[in-house]
From TrEMBL:
<dbReference type="Pfam" id="PF05402">
    <property type="entry name" value="PqqD"/>
</dbReference>
<protein>
    <submittedName>
        <fullName>Lariatin biosynthetic protein</fullName>
    </submittedName>
</protein>
<dbReference type="InterPro" id="IPR041881">
    <property type="entry name" value="PqqD_sf"/>
</dbReference>
<dbReference type="InterPro" id="IPR008792">
    <property type="entry name" value="PQQD"/>
</dbReference>
Amino acid sequence: MVLRLRKNVIITPTEYGAVALDERSGDYYQLNSTAALILDQLTKKIPVESIAARIALDFEVSKAQASADLDEYLRMLREQGLLR
C-alpha cells in the first residue's frame, strides 16, 4: 500500500531529523530521524511494507515491531490530517 502526504505539507531536513509544516493549518511538527525517514519514503511513493522493512533493518528491530510502530505513526499522521 502506498500512502501520500497532502500537497500542503512541506518537509525541511534539519540536523536532528526534519520539520514538517502544514501550510493549511500553519502547524509545525518537529520530526526525529525515524519520522523524517518515514516521511521521506512516503514522498518517494515507497510502499508501507517496504518502509517497515527499512526501519527494521536500519534500527535493528523486528519486522513485526517496525510494522506496529509504523502503523501507529501513520495513524497519528491521519489524525493530524497530513495524509491523503
